């Protein structure tokens, strides 16, 4: 496989967001809770801009975990979360069927908690032949050690680790791609820290050709 072919392409990908709910976010200690929300929102916005199918799943929303986090629901107004009982999305027929129905074999995954509801479907998807990309900075674990070990286990099983900004830049790849330029730039400016500040400055000084 050549270098270009190994890079993510929007038409080959689907995004799975798992258990972004307040009851689970309370337990996250591997990253600040605000950072996990901001990174997940940036990732979701990226999928919207590049027209990537999005599957959202939640669990125990009425008895413990609560609904999908409002900032995520706000950027995904047309996406209905699939409620399930067990920890593994892959073992829920409705959620699994929704992923299969995208007809995409490259699966981008983020969610809470890294040690369980992220790693379980990732390991299952890998076994089923999917190419899986875990967005490490949009996943939250109960501890830094638990988060790191879960990422390590997924990587050893064949998952590829990435970040939300790498996903966006890999999909955009060329700032002269006009159809996604404005949307991608806005996400980076809002969530990309110093790089976003620089991009905003450049936008005021020069314009894409």
From TrEMBL:
Gene3D superfamilies assigned to the protein according to its UniProt record, in alphabetical order: Isochorismatase-like
Pfam families attached to this UniProt entry: Isochorismatase
InterPro entries found in the cross-reference section: Hydrolase_YcaC-like, Isochorismatase-like_dom, Isochorismatase-like_sf
- Domain named Isochorismatase-like: residues: 13-165
Q: Which keywords fit this entry according to its UniProt record? A: Hydrolase
Origin: domain of life = Bacteria
Q: Does the keyword Cell membrane apply?
A: no
Key word Hydrolase present in the record? yes
Q: What is this protein called?
A: Isochorismatase hydrolase
Q: Which organism is it from?
A: Granulicella mallensis (strain ATCC BAA-1857 / DSM 23137 / MP5ACTX8)
């Amino acid at each position: 496989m050549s270098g270009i072919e190994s890079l993510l392409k929007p038409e080959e990908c689907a995004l799975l967001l798992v258990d972004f709910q307040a009851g689970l976010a309370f337990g996250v200690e591997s990253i600040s809770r605000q950072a996990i929300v901001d990174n997940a929102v940036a990732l979701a916005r990226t999928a919207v801009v590049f027209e990537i199918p999005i599957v959202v799943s939640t669990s125990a929303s009425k008895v413990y975990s609560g609904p999908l986090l409002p900032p995520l629901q706000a950027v995904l107004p047309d996406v209905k979360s699939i409620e399930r009982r067990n920890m593994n999305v892959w073992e829920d027929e409705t959620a699994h069927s929704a992923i299969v129905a995208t007809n995409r074999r490259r699966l981008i995954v983020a969610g809470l908690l890294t040690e369980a509801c992220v790693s379980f479907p990732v390991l299952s998807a890998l076994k089923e032949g999917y190419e899986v990309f875990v967005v490490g900075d949009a996943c939250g674990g109960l501890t830094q050690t638990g988060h790191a070990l879960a990422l390590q286990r997924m990587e050893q099983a064949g998952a590829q680790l990435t970040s939300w900004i790498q996903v966006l830049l890999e999909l955009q790849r060329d700032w002269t791609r006009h159809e996604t330029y404005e949307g991608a730039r806005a996400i980076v400016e809002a969530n990309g820290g110093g790089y976003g500040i620089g991009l905003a400055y450049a936008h005021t000084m020069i314009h894409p050709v």
